[in-house]
Design brief:
Helix content: under 10%
Distance between the termini: 83 Å
Strand content: 5-15%
Structural class: little secondary structure
Shape: rod-shaped
Length: about 80
């Protein structure tokens, strides 16, 4: 006896879709199987979304503004 855990999808009441991957050691043929369904559906896992920071245009307002040290502080550098 093998125990295989998988998910089923119920789209229409009374009908289920089963995606089942069997181990290779189970040979072709007819088998009896038992399906046990939990009382409540599985909750979807929340995916963590990245933090979105606001963006803005960082170019100088006037291309003539270079903000070099000499332009800001003069010849003495302060």
């Amino acid at each position: 006896m093998k125990a295989i855990k998988t998910n089923i999808f119920v789209k229409v009441p009374g009908r289920a879709v089963v995606d089942l991957r069997l181990p290779p050691e189970i040979k072709q043929g007819r088998y009896r199987a038992m399906v046990i369904i939990e009382e409540y559906p599985v909750r979807k896992k929340r995916t963590k979304k990245g933090v979105r920071f606001p963006t803005f245009n960082a170019e100088p307002v006037d291309p003539k503004n270079t903000f070099r040290r000499e332009d800001l502080y003069g010849d003495d550098g302060r």
